[in-house]
Amino acid sequence: MGKQKDDIPLAQRRALAARLLLNGEGISEVSRKARLSLPTVSKYKDLVERSGADAVARLRIHGGPSRLDDASQSWLVSAIKHSPELHGYPGPTWTISQLRELIFRRFGVQFSPSHVGYLVRGYGLAYRLTYSTSEKASSATAHKPQSDVYAARRKIAAKMLLDGDSVEHVSKALNISVRTITKYRSMVVADGVEAVEQLKASGRSATLGPEALKWLRATLEGSPMAHGYETELWRNGDVQKLIKEKFGIYHSAGHVRTLVGKLGLDHRMRPPKLRTEKKRKRAISHT
């Protein structure tokens, strides 16, 4: 006589539920096929949408969150004791949401806010938390427009890539296409996390408006010395910095060159080959 579906190990029924949810089947249908309760399948659906099918597989048999091993917990304790700024977060103390993100980035495990709080208190490090900031952040997040949510996901993706996670892992974890994550990785490698953070919701870099371009044209026609740069001609990096300081918009080095060319001000820029020629002459003089 064959096995009844209720006798199938929970791990297998979870795997089946995750596959069905990924295929777009409804909660009721998944509940029936995997022999799991509707609330359980609903929880799994939320996990799959946020963190991929692996998040369901990582749950313990009784449904609680997966554990961190001793080495992972030692790393986390050290991180909590030190400044969040070492990991790219502002402030002298941690918020629950920051630690949740850090744990997910580092270990690929999604813990609930209450479980993160339980962990921190268990380590005797509750004094390293800023609860009021966390509560305000949670309230604000609930009313964030969709564009802010996308911006937060791009930031997490950039940080994960910077930490060395693969394109496939980041894509799966954040439910963003491999093609998009590949583009983000190229941007992070070339210009750092900031390049990805400056993207608009459409995925394109923020651009300068007519008034900003007018200001930039007038500025580039003048001397760099008026802005504290000790050169007669503008350097690409200086223009890049100028735009960031004046308008809060990050442009890659390549985009700055394109922008200056469109303004017809190439003659105001220091030629990139100038330094190469100097290095070559210096090398020849030493041979």
Task: Sum this structure up briefly.
This protein has 287 residues and is mainly alpha-helical. It has helices at 10-22, 27-34, 38-51, 53-57, 70-81, 96-107, 113-122, 131-142, 146-162, 167-174, 178-191, 193-197, 210-221, 236-247, 253-262, 273-285. It contains 16 helices and no strands.
Question: Radius of gyration from the CA trace?
Answer: 25 Å
Number of strands: 0
Helix segment tally: 16
Please give the alpha-carbon distance between the first and last residues: 87 Å
- How helix-rich are the residues, as a percent range? 55-70%
Portion in beta strands: under 5%
Tell me the structural class: mainly alpha
Low-confidence stretches: 1-6, 61-65, 132-146
Summarize the main sheet: none
Give the topology string: H per helix, E per strand.
Answer: HHHHHHHHHHHHHHHH
Overall spatial form: elongated
Describe what you observe in this structure.
- The structure is a single chain.
- By secondary structure, the chain is mainly α.
- The chain folds into 4 domains: 53 residues, Arc Repressor Mutant, subunit A (Orthogonal Bundle); 73 residues; 52 residues; 59 residues, no CATH class.
- The chain is built from 16 helices and no strands.
- Helix 2 packs across helix 3.
